Write the structure tokens for this entry.
Amino acid sequence: MPEFRRYLVNIDSISTHQLFTDCLMVGAGIAGLRAAIEASKHRNVIIVCKDTLENSNTWKAQGGIASVLDKTDTFESHIADTINTGCGIGDESVVDFVVRQGPELIEQLFRWGAEFDQIDGRIATTLEGGHSHPRIAHAHGDETGRIIAEVLIRKVRQNPNIKIMENFYTVDLLTNDNNECVGIIGRDRRSPPGTDQIIWAANTILATGGAGQLYRETTNPEVATGDGVAMAYRAGAILQDLEFMQFHPTTLYVAGASRALITETLRGEGAVLLDNGGRRFMKDYHESAELAPRDIVSRAILAQMLKTISTHVYLDVRHFDKEHFAKRFPHIFELCESFDIDVSRNLIPVRPSAHYMIGGVRTDTSGKTSIESLYACGEIASTGLHGANRLGSNSLLEGLVFGKIAGQLVSQCKEAGIAHIKHPLIKYQIPHSDRTRLDAADVTNSLRALMWRNVGITRTVQPLSEAQEIIGFWQRYVMDKIFDGPAGWECQNMLTVSLLMTRAAEQRRESRGVHFRSDFPNTDDKRFKKHIEITR
Ligand code: SIN
């Protein structure tokens, strides 16, 4: 079976250029950056990322970071909201741990220079769906991710123990005969074929983010292609919860333009949803209306689009004071202006898009995966915090907490030094295939359309099994080839992750959280109050 190939490229470790480090960070969103800062206290660190440090989901995050920062809020309330939203499969001990770490780590970011918006000398908080208290901290209005990322990036760029390798595409995790992770193989994207590099590492932390690009419509940047999940799968790591892909209810819908996030905090501060007949419809679907959990709002929008035969619905913010809006939501204000949408007079066309991969590489409470010396944190990790549905703005929090924990563990781990790396001889040769070569870009585009149509917000058995058939067909012609650059490797990774997600979605014959099966609309605790685990 071509999908079971261990590595995507030929490897001869003796003749490949080699680097060595105590700790290798793959990815550079909030989790990777925070982990690097922590690990660098006692270890040398290399960060590799496939684009620049600035190109991440973290950078694009608008709404904010959830935490108990208001005197009238409580840990118990944040814990209860997170567990309720997780629909029965959230890990209560993880939720408790993460929620309680939040305030201290956010205060630390603030001290490091993250200019969170303030009110009366305290960090201001706002509301998002599913939260029973305003607890979303934000910075420069709707530029929270950029502000946090800039602070962390400044710290890593100034740190003499951290070497940064941008534009480096990680192809695969390397493992030895005991299935311990010993580093990676990859290549600088600007270098020609034949210039692969091996980075041997005592410990490797995967923080490669999500996989929104598996879908035609997504809020995610182009780099979010699920590479980390695919390479962890090839290395034999346990994955879980891949069927849970969260769709964000409101992304700007302008035909021909790429989708852009319109933060949920807008609804938290009074924006309402109207259908194309100008009718406010959310009350028909949930008593909390626009502030119902995300999965409910996304499905309600889809249902209303069908009912009114429309490609989108609208966000109405015309009642906001225009000057206040421009200050509070500067990014969205500018975005709308760029499409000639005057928010004080026009409605904002929106519809749901793929947003956040809830499942991923299974980790324990310290970020350890099932593979020795391999850690994961941030969106790629499945820690159990979110259960079957993620509460808005809990992801930056999760990345911050587990980034710190994983980095700390790696920096203190007795065998974390380069001297302990037992790098094996790796020789791997892929047989030549005569089968027809498909164009990777064509397959990628068709795959994204297929995932959107067949494995989207509402799922049912036939489209799910057809999707597996079609992906399997593409795999036969793509997974048997050796590509010499990122476009092909990304296509191979996307096919791998899409197939695993689709299989998991078919296997979960119930509806729970973000996973909605129209053929099994109820939750079935008897058979499915559990995680679906996947290994190679
Ligand atoms: C948003 O601002 O609506 C996105 C926040 C999140 O996904 O956590």
Residues 61-63, 263-265, 356, 392-393, 395 surround succinic acid (CB under 6 Å).
